[in-house]
Amino acid sequence: MATAMGERRFSPEVFRLLRDLIYDYCGIHFADDNAYIIHRRLQPRLDALSLTDFGDYYRYLHSCDAGARKFELEEIVDRVTNNETYFFRESYQLEAFRDEILPEIYKNKPRGKRLSVWSAGCASGEEAYTIAILILESGLFNDWEVRVFGNDISRRCLSVARRAQYGRSSFRATDDRLLRRYFREADNKHQVREEVRALCSFGQINLIDEAMMRLVGDIDVVFCRNVLIYFDLASRRRVIETLHKKLVPGGYLLLGHSESLINLTTAFDLVHLKNDMVYRKPVHG
Ligand SMILES: C[S@@+](CC[C@H](N)C(=O)[O-])C[C@H]1O[C@@H](n2cnc3c(N)ncnc32)[C@H](O)[C@@H]1O
C-alpha cells in the first residue's frame, strides 16, 4: 500500500495477517477494501510502542507475553470497532418489548418471579439502561428479581457503561419525561439514577469466546442489535447458536432493524407482534 509522509508501511500481506488476527480474536471481518480503516486507526499504536512499521507491529503481537498481547488486542478492538449507540434506539422495537413481550413474561412466569434480559454488545451501556427503564416503566416486576446484563468486548466502552454518565448525543431519542424521571444532572452530563443502575451489571465478554459465554446464565430476552453486521457468516452463526443456548424455551431474540436470521439458522420462530417482528426460541423442541 502506498503511504503518505509520516504514515507507516502497510503491505497487503501484513494487512491480511492483522485482519486474520482481529477476526480470530473477535469475529469482526475486514474486507480488502477496508484496509484503510486498520491502517488509519492502528497507526497510533505503532507510535505508542515505538515500532517502525506494521510488520513490526504484527511481530510484536506474536512475541510479547500473554498479558501484553491481551492488552494490545483490546487496544486494537477499541480502535477498529463501531461503538455507536444511544438511549431508546429503535423505538418501535422497544415498544414491542414493553407492551407485548414483558406482559407476556409477567403472565407466564417462565422462570418464576425472575427476569433476566441481556444486552449483547452493549457498547457504552445506553441499551442496557434503556431496557432497565422500560422494565421499571412497565410497573409489572416490582417484586421480581430483575437482572439486566450488558456485555461488550471493549474495555473502554464498559468503563463508560459503569460510570453511567452521558452527554447530549446519547439522548437524541429520549423524551423529556423519561430524562427527568430516570437521570439527574451531574458535571454537565446526565447521570443514570440509582434505581436503574441497581438492575444493571456489565461484563467484558467476547461473544465468540465460548468459554467466556459460560458466565452468562439463563436469559428471557436477548437484545443483540447492530453487532452481527460486523461479523462474517461463520461468526454470526457461532454467536446466534450461543444466544439460542442461553435463552430459555420461549425466550425472545431482538436483532437490529437491518439484521435477520436468514441463511443463519432455522432454530427460531419469527413472531409478528403489533409493532415489530421478533425471533423466539420455540417452547418445545
Ligand atoms: C454498534 S455497537 C451496538 C450497541 C448497541 N447494541 C446498539 O444497538 O445501540 C456494536 C458493539 O458490539 C461490540 N462487539 C463487537 N464484537 C464483539 C464481540 N466479539 N464480543 C462482544 N462485543 C462485541 C463492539 O465493541 C460495539 O460496542
Can you give keywords for this protein?
10 strands, three-stranded antiparallel sheet, disordered N terminus, 285 residues, alpha/beta, binds S-adenosylmethionine, 19% strand, seven-stranded mixed sheet
Task: Tell me what the structure shows.
- With 285 residues, this protein is α/β, with parallel strands linked by helices.
- The chain is 43% helix and 19% strand.
- A 7-stranded mixed β-sheet has the order 6-2-1-7-8-10-9. A 3-stranded antiparallel β-sheet has the order 3-5-4.
- Helix 6 (126-138) links the parallel strand 1 and strand 2 (145-152).
- The N and C termini lie far apart (52 Å).
- Bound molecules: S-adenosylmethionine.
- Residues 26-28, 81-85, 89, 121-123, 127, 152-154, 157, 206-208, 225-227, 230, 256 line the site of S-adenosylmethionine.
- S-adenosylmethionine (SAM) binds at residues 26-28, 81-85, 89, 121-123, 127, 152-154, 157, 206-208, 225-227, 230, 256.
Tell me, rounded to a whole number, the average pLDDT: 94
Strand neighbour order, sheet with most strands: 6-2-1-7-8-10-9
Class derived from helix and strand content:
alpha/beta
- Specify the number of helices: 11
Distance between the termini: 52 Å
Helix content: 40-55%
Low-confidence stretches: 1-5
User: Which compounds are bound in this model?
Assistant: S-adenosylmethionine
Q: How would a crystallographer describe the biggest sheet?
A: 7 strands, mixed
Radius of gyration: 20 Å
Structure summary, number of beta strands: 10
Strand content: 15-25%
Morphology: globular
Summarize the helix and strand pattern as letters: HHHHHEHEHEHEEHEHEHEEE
